[in-house]
Specification:
- The protein is an alpha/beta fold.
- The chain is built from 16 helices and 12 strands.
- The chain has an 8-stranded parallel sheet. It has a two-stranded antiparallel ribbon with strand order 1-12.
- Helix 2 runs antiparallel to helix 16 and helix 13 packs across helix 14.
- The structure holds ligand FNR.
- The site of ligand FNR has 23 residues, from helix 3.
């Protein structure tokens, strides 16, 4: 079975009178999802920082590159598997951590559904700190597929340690520490609509279920107390001085998210990180920067074979996945598209998004003569602009 076989299933389904229920283009997917989401979530999911130049640039930067077609290398089977921290994954695709995923399902259990989609597809799920269900209910739902946990480092070190040890106990196979969000970026769409779900007490289940947090707020805390306590401790401004302590919290592979400079990548590995996650948070945090993809080649050159590199921000198609791999990523995470898949079509909609990305990547590799991920070197791309 190849990932590309998804298209055969779709054509055969149509022959049997069943047309696909879910969109194929990102534009249609986004429109369908935004129509399904409640108004207070629309700007939060779709919007970004500033005038969103960086967010738009993330999605168009890949157009600067073309995959070079190579013929007479056709291979009926492709191998998209990659190795990450000693685990062989069926594909290089991951689900990026998304803090309001839980709310993007009408039943408010979107985090569990993300994990269920991981179980159904083999695409690992990175659970955010900001969940609507406690991580103990979410991470195990990935079944045999790996789950990772993403930490927003709180100011309270005991709380950080508690969250990490809970994630480890719940089966997380890696810890992702996000570095670019200790303070929220300037998000005009959310500011104009007064949207910030956490300030309404949403997506805080990992805090309200945490013994350290509960101790801080007391036994009968109301929503106001919970929210104000959370505001006070959410974002520790992480510096190099914190890295040894973060490293000491777990034996799990430690992946630093938001690293975009080669010097930062080198030093992070020198000081104990196991993986580098190149991302600009989908353009939600700092506007005015380049596209995340623009930083990837230099980081990849600095990291070399020392550690795996995860990339996200702007991945919309299977072609984007292929290009990011050729530019040096070991694995590629998808963000908004899978959130929209869930919002529009529940778990089947989310699974459709993942299968479509994988099928498109697989078929591009098939047609253009790159049967394995290892074949996707810099030579597979031509820079057009
Ligand atoms: C995010 N992202 C994010 N990242 C993180 O480390 N922890 C989090 O809780 C969240 N929450 C979150 C919510 C929403 C609504 C979005 C859209 C994104 C960032 C995410 O992991 C990833 O970096 C981006 O989604 C990549 O950009 P695109 O490809 O989705 O545009």
């Amino acid at each position: 079975m190849s990932f590309g076989d998804y298209q055969i299933a779709l054509y055969l389904g149509a022959l049997g009178g069943v047309l696909p229920q879910h969109p194929f283009s990102y534009a249609e997917l986004e429109a369908a999802a935004l129509a399904a989401l409640p108004p207070e979530l629309r700007t939060y999911v779709a919007g970004g920082a500033g005038d969103e130049t960086t967010q738009r640039g993330n999605a168009t930067a890949v157009d600067d590159y073309a995959v070079v077609p190579r013929m007479l290398r056709a291979s009926e089977s492709r191998d998209l598997s990659v190795e990450l921290f000693g685990t062989t994954l069926p594909s290089p695709l991951l689900m990026a951590p998304v803090g309001v995923l839980g709310l993007c399902s009408p039943d408010q259990h979107g985090d569990v559904h993300g994990a269920e989609a991981a179980a159904a597809t083999g695409v690992p799920f990175i659970g955010s700190t900001l969940m609507s269900d406690p991580l103990e209910d979410v991470l195990p739902a990935t079944g045999d597929t790996p789950a990772w946990f993403q930490l927003y480092t709180p100011k309270n070190r005991d709380l950080a340690a508690s969250l990490v040890s809970r994630a480890e106990a719940a089966g997380a196979e890696a810890l992702v520490v996000t570095l670019d969000t200790w303070v929220p970026g300037w998000r005009p769409r959310d500011l104009a609509s007064g949207n910030f779900p956490q300030l309404r007490g949403k997506a805080l289940a990992n805090y309200t279920s945490d013994p350290v947090f509960r101790e801080l707020v007391g036994p009968d805390a109301d929503v106001g107390t919970i929210v104000m306590t959370w505001v006070g401790l959410f974002g520790h401004p992480v510096t190099w001085d914190d890295l040894a302590w973060l490293r000491s919290l777990t034996d799990l592979p430690l992946v630093l998210k938001g690293v975009c400079h080669p010097d930062d990548a080198r030093r992070a590995l020198d000081e104990g990180a196991d993986g580098i996650y190149v991302s600009n948070h989908g353009g939600r945090q700092a506007n005015g920067g380049g596209a995340a993809l623009d930083w990837l080649p230099d980081v990849a050159a600095a990291v070399g074979e020392r550690a795996p590199i995860v990339f996200d921000s702007g991945v919309r198609t299977g072609d984007d996945v292929v290009k990011a791999l050729a530019l040096g990523a070991t694995a590629v995470a998808v963000g908004r598209p899978y959130v929209y898949g869930l919002a529009h079509g529940g778990v089947p909609g989310l699974v459709h998004v993942l299968r479509s990305l994988l099928a498109e990547a697989d078929l591009l590799m098939a047609v253009d003569g790159y049967p394995t991920v290892a074949d996707l070197t810099a030579d597979a791309l031509r820079r057009l602009r």
